[in-house]
């Protein structure tokens, strides 16, 4: 039989179809293997710990004494996989001095000239407020000014002035700044003999001097609650005024690692701030031990 041959021979056409199917199967297999490899990589990423870094910190003592800092660090280490190592703790001069010597990544102390000077001297960067504590007005249990149970610092100071009672305040432990702000806002003027400033290094001596003089004083609420500040016959008279809160700053060394900067951001994050708002609530009274800050 004669005729034209149109296209490839049948055996070549058959081989071509086989090769095409093989290529399709091979491509399909490669896609499956690629997806499996991607899934395995994701699983390894989720199950494997992040690269762990150590953060050395210097912390004001009050945060240690309440258990606040250890619990805060435990939460961060669990969330991040990093390690936070306590390098220094205690009063502000001790903590700031330790940071100045170098080798510490992060410092937490009340907002103060000492903290700002660390930045001015190039030893720290990015000062950020991240938590507050509060102060209270204490006085003799006889309460000559009649201020017990109040929550308004300015109203209490007006009564102290009107009753001719005395007020003794430490000159350099934050209480002086709180008093100044209350006086400015309330336009309050004390008689010279009514107001005394104490310059001793031991804050406990302030409350003892006030007790001896039957005077009122302004001190941190936490040291009173945990029994660190006390004197016979002295009681908390006024508490809970937001104007009597003091912010803490967090600052980092210019040479700090990435984990340190992550920690500083984490302190100001919403989940951490929400936790701060509930820490210690109901343990000593109906107020939290620390207060979050307002973050835009």
Q: Main traits of this protein?
A:
296 residues, alpha/beta, D-Maltodextrin-Binding Protein, domain 2, 2 domains, nine-stranded mixed β-sheet, 11 helices, 9 strands, 44% helix, disordered N terminus
Output the number of helix runs. 11
Helix content: 40-55%
Structural class: alpha/beta
Q: Name the CATH superfamily classification of the largest domain.
A: Periplasmic binding protein-like II
The coarse silhouette is elongated
Known CATH architecture of the largest domain: 3-Layer(aba) Sandwich
Ends: how far apart? 91 Å
Unreliable segments of 5+ consecutive residues: 1-15, 40-49
Mean pLDDT: 87
Tell me the domain tally. 2
Radius of gyration: 32 Å
CATH class label of the largest domain: Alpha Beta
Here the CATH topology of the largest domain equals D-Maltodextrin-Binding Protein, domain 2
The fraction of residues in strands falls at: 15-25%
Major sheet size, sense and barrel closure: 9 strands, mixed
- The strand count comes to 9
**SSE order, one letter for each helix or strand:** HEHHEHEHEHEHEHEHEEHH
């Amino acid at each position: 039989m004669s005729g034209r041959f149109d296209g490839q021979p049948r055996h070549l056409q058959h081989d071509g179809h086989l090769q095409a199917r093989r290529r399709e199967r091979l491509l399909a297999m490669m896609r499956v293997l690629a997806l499996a490899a991607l899934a395995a990589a994701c699983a390894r990423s989720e199950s494997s710990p992040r690269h762990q870094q150590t953060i050395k910190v210097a912390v004001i003592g009050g945060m240690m004494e309440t258990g606040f800092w250890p619990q805060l660090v435990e939460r961060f280490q669990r969330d991040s996989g990093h390690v936070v190592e306590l390098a220094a703790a205690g009063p502000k001069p001790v903590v700031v001095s330790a940071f100045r010597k170098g080798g510490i990544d992060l410092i937490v102390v009340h907002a103060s000239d000492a903290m700002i000077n660390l930045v001015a001297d190039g030893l720290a960067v990015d000062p950020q407020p991240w938590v507050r504590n509060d102060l209270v007005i204490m006085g003799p249990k006889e309460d000559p000014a009649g201020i017990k149970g109040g929550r308004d610092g300015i109203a209490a100071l007006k009564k102290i002035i009107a009753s001719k009672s005395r007020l003794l305040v430490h000159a350099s432990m934050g209480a002086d700044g709180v008093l100044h702000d209350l006086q400015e806002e309330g336009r309050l003027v004390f008689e010279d003999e009514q107001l005394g400033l104490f310059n001793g290094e031991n804050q406990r001596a302030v409350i003892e001097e006030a007790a001896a003089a039957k005077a009122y004083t302004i001190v941190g609420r936490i040291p009173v609650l945990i029994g660190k500040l006390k004197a016979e016959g002295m009681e908390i008279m006024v508490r809970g005024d937001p104007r009597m809160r003091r912010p803490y700053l967090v600052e980092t060394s210019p040479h700090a690692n990435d984990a340190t900067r992550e920690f500083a951001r984490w302190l100001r994050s919403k989940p951490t701030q929400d936790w701060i708002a509930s820490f210690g609530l109901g343990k000593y009274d109906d107020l939290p031990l620390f207060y979050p800050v307002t973050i835009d």
